[in-house]
Amino acid sequence: MPQPLLALEDVRTEFATPRGVVRAVDGVDLAIGAGETLAVVGESGSGKSVTALSILRLFARGDRASVAGRIAWRGRDDRVVDLAALDEKGLREVRGRDIAVIFQDPSASLNPVFSIGAQIREAVRRHHPGEDAARRAVELLRDVGIADPERRVDSFPHQLSGGMRQRAMIAIALACAPRLLIADEPTTALDVTVQAQILELISDLRRQLNMSMVIITHDLGVVANHTDRVAVMYAGELVELADTKELFSRPRMPYTEALMNSIPRLDREPGSRLPSIAGFTPDPTTERTSCGFASRCKYATDKCRNEHPELTDDGNGHLYRCFFPLGGN
Description:
Distance between the termini: 24 Å
CATH architecture of the domain at 1-89 and 219-265 and 274-300 and 308-329: 3-Layer(aba) Sandwich
CATH class of the domain at 1-89 and 219-265 and 274-300 and 308-329: Alpha Beta
Order of helices and strands: EEEHEEHEHHHHHEHEHEEHHHEE
Mean pLDDT: 90
Radius of gyration: 21 Å
Low-confidence stretches: none
Number of helices: 12
CATH superfamily of the domain at 1-89 and 219-265 and 274-300 and 308-329: P-loop containing nucleotide triphosphate hydrolases
Number of strands: 12
């Protein structure tokens, strides 16, 4: 890969809790190229969303989070800066303007007392004070497929459907033409038909604007036709990384196989239960001394239960964290 737009190097994110230090992200190395779409997938609690939030330190007040490692960002002037080393003022210069985020629940992200247009105009004025913010707000609503944008620009969030609120969030995220868009579970709260529309919209806009994009999701089925590569996370670690087609045709991690088996399929008997992954993820407050998936893996041996596997390259850029990968070594 040419010099990446964003590179995470041994990123570790910890939270201080009454139970002890929770290692939510544990030594993740990950790079996103210019114009690339990367999916980060895994169960709830796998660390995928925390990894995304760590890039810009977008944690809630009182979270007592700490981020270590290096997060190398290649700015508009090609100068590389370490986002992990920036103070809050420096991060504010990057947030929204260069890296934008779409969250899964637009109702929680949109301000209920301001119109959609006012919230878009605020984003434009903050980073592009010389631009006609009112005209830009209408243009953005049109770009994200909201009908009659001249009227809808004055609507409040509660006056919009869930799909329209998500489109409005996308408009706000794109207000400053970011170079990287992070979409954190962007379709979770929407019905199936609207999910497909939103994914198509995001993909089309990414191509038009030549952005890079990271899609965070628990559903591998969502990413099959919309991404270049897939990173699979489990218990805070990166456990598999490959081109999307390669991952779907030849998964190496038993965990990835289990995620794929849980995707709804048309050839299953009507009313049949979806396969699930039995067991629980390891305690994030304890030291890692084994494969984190060993207690839930049907292929596990004593080696898996007593040693911690390192990330391995199969020689073709397909990375996996397993002593006994599917398909052999």
